[in-house]
Write a structure and sequence with these properties.
Elements: E1 4-10, H1 14-25, E2 30-33, H2 41-45, E3 50-51, H3 65-73, H4 79-89, E4 100-102, E5 105-109, H5 112-124, E6 129-132, E7 140-143, E8 146-150, E9 153-160, H6 166-171, E10 175-177, E11 186-191, H7 201-213, E12 219-223, E13 230-234, H8 241-251, E14 267-268, E15 273-275, H9 283-287, E16 295-299, E17 303-306, E18 312-315, E19 323-326, E20 338-340, H10 349-355, H11 358-376
Parallel strand pairs: 1-2, 1-9, 2-6, 9-20
Antiparallel strand pairs: 3-5, 4-5, 7-8, 8-9, 10-15, 11-13, 11-14, 12-13, 16-19, 17-18
The structure holds flavin-adenine dinucleotide (FAD).
Flavin-adenine dinucleotide binds near residues 14, 36 and 161.
Length: about 375
Amino acid sequence: MNEKFDIAVVGSGAAGIAAAVSAARAGAKGLLLDKNSAVGGIGGFSGLTTLCGLYDDAGNFLNDGFVREFAEALHEDTAAQQRRPTDICGAMLPRSLNQIKMGRVWVLPYRPEKFRAVAEKLFSSLPNLQTRWNSRVENAVVENGRIVSLNGFGVGAVIDCSGTAEVARIVGAECLETDETTQASAVIFPLHHVTRDLKSAADVVQIMLPLARAGFAPLHFQSNFGGDFVTVKFAGQPEQVPQLINFLRANIRGFENCSTPLKEFSVTRRAGRMIVGEYVLTGADVLGAKKFPDAIARCAWPIEQWNSAGEVKLRYLPPGEFYEIPARSLRAAKIKNLFMAGKTISADADAIASARVMGCCLATGEAAAKLATVVFE
Ligand SMILES: Cc1cc2nc3c(=O)[nH]c(=O)nc-3n(C[C@H](O)[C@H](O)[C@H](O)COP(=O)(O)OP(=O)(O)OC[C@H]3O[C@@H](n4cnc5c(N)ncnc54)[C@H](O)[C@@H]3O)c2cc1C
């Protein structure tokens, strides 16, 4: 067997970043594997620009610790940023400089390149954390109900942050599937030089009608940083994006000069795969704001369901409420040293449609590292 690690983390999205940093800070000799060539996962590479699930209804942080540290490190310190929240929200003052209210929820606008840079800086400060890029998890050896090696490395504990439960797949741990019909995929891309205000529903309808008549699949606009920049979530195919942008430029007021810096487009999947743990968090727990004696994280994000027509249905918690995630939802049911974080936690299709947002992934990543640290010690 090759080198031995106390904790191996698979996947370097929001959950994996939190898990790897927290494990190394707790003194573990850590290994982080990702099939991609760099850190970031969906949060760093898909074109997303809003970090959801950080705040309660009043805009206060739901979780402290690494979640808050990472969110604050994404802070944009420009004069424009300092003006933006009051420009957008009118009289409503945000609880921290960067966050904004979208409908009933607070979100943190961020730049994906900063998301990656913050993670890289954290990793470089931790000599006991080794990263292996372009490394797909391919094999694991299980002895007496414990994973003893992963890709040939000896391991004390493993945290599956792959989003699609790749470690569980290899070791044959029981998984739950999400419902693709309520978690439709989307092509996400930024659109620059948009001079039209997209905040009123009437304005958005005026844009959607000609798009629908021209045969385009629906899209969602998210104005994040103010100015002339929006994030688009498109329910169509990646190859249709250049055509869509040309249509917007030619036919829609305020989009005459719009462009995207991206050269390639890809589909990002909302649905993941969850590993069955000691407790399966349910949609009823989420909507009932359930609390647990072994709670390790809080979340207040609504259950978000997206159909293939690009329509979203949001089911909210009672006003002012949050639910908790128990430690048991982060421990695999049958493999003693396998933990999960982010999109792989033990949750049913409804619960993960809330708990998959990045603020929650950061919280479960940090908590999984704490649980794993106890196991390897
Ligand atoms: C269309 C869409 C819009 C969304 N909008 C928002 C939003 O506005 N705000 C928000 O907060 N959340 C949003 N989400 C949800 C959120 O982005 C994801 O649920 C979250 O980022 C998942 O984080 P994660 O760390 O669990 O997994 P991921 O970010 O998916 O990271 C998984 C990592 O594991 C690696 N990996 C996978 N398989 C292997 C393997 N076999 N071997 C090694 N490595 C592997 C991948 O390369 C990747 O780096 C959206 C999701 C989608 C799809």
